[in-house]
Design a protein that fits this description.
- It contains seven helices and no strands.
- It is mainly α and 196 residues long.
C-alpha cells in the first residue's frame, strides 16, 4: 500500500498533469515497487465509486425503479466487481500490446500515472450524477454538465497518455479511445451479468 507521503506527492503530480505540466511525472514512483503500489489506489477509488453507485440507485428510482425490494447489496457487489475488472483490464491488455506498439519503454510510467490520476478523474466524472441525484440541479443542467465533464475527463486522460507514454497525437488518441471503449464494454458486460 502507498504511504501517506506517497499519496500526497502523487496527488500533486496528478494535479500537475491536469494542468498539462510535464513535471508532474516526477512526483510518481515509477520503480517496480511503485508500479505495484499504485494499484493500491483502487482503495482510494472505492469511496468515490460507492458515491457514484448510490447516485445511480437514486437515478434508477427517479426513473421509476421500485424502491422496495431493490437488491441494493447485490447491486453494490456487481458494481465493485466491475470496478475491479475495469481497474485491471487496461494494464493487462496494454502489457500484451506494449511491445508490438513500441510502448514498452514507457509502459510502467504510464500505468503509474494512470492509476494515480484516476481518483481526480473519477471525482470530476461523478459530479453531475451526484448533483442531480441529490436534487441540487435539474435534468437538463445535469445533462449539460455531464457533457462538459466528460469532455474534460477525456482531455485529462489524453494529457496523461501524451505526457506519460510520450506518444504521437494519433497514438495518444487511439489509447484513450481504446481505454474508454474497453471500460464501456466491460461495464455493459457486468450490467448484463448482474440480475437486479
Amino acid at each position: 500500500m502507498p504511504t501517506v507521503a506517497e499519496i500526497q506527492r502523487s496527488f500533486q503530480g496528478a494535479w500537475a498533469l491536469l494542468l498539462n505540466r510535464r513535471e508532474g511525472m516526477q512526483a510518481f514512483d515509477v520503480s517496480v515497487d511503485g508500479f505495484f503500489r499504485s494499484f493500491g489506489v483502487v482503495f482510494l477509488l472505492a469511496p468515490l465509486y460507492a458515491i457514484a453507485a448510490l447516485a445511480e440507485v437514486r437515478l434508477l428510482q427517479i426513473d421509476g425503479a421500485p424502491v422496495d425490494g431493490f437488491p441494493l447489496t447485490w447491486f453494490f457487489v456487481w458494481k465493485f466487481v466491475g470496478l475491479g475488472v475495469d481497474w485491471l483490464a487496461l494494464p493487462i491488455v496494454l502489457a500484451l500490446l506494449a511491445k508490438p506498439l513500441g510502448l514498452a519503454a514507457r509502459y510502467v510510467p504510464f500505468i503509474v500515472a494512470r492509476n494515480w490520476t484516476s481518483p481526480l478523474a473519477m471525482s470530476m466524472s461523478i459530479l453531475p450524477s451526484v448533483l442531480f441525484a441529490s436534487g441540487l440541479i435539474g435534468q437538463e443542467l445535469a445533462a449539460i454538465l455531464f457533457l462538459v465533464v466528460v469532455m474534460g475527463v477525456i482531455r485529462y486522460q489524453y494529457q496523461v497518455v501524451r505526457i506519460a507514454l510520450q506518444t504521437t497525437i494519433a497514438m495518444s488518441i487511439a489509447v484513450v479511445a481504446f481505454d474508454l471503449t474497453l471500460s464501456l464494454v466491460l461495464a455493459e458486460l457486468v450490467n448484463r451479468l448482474a440480475v437486479y
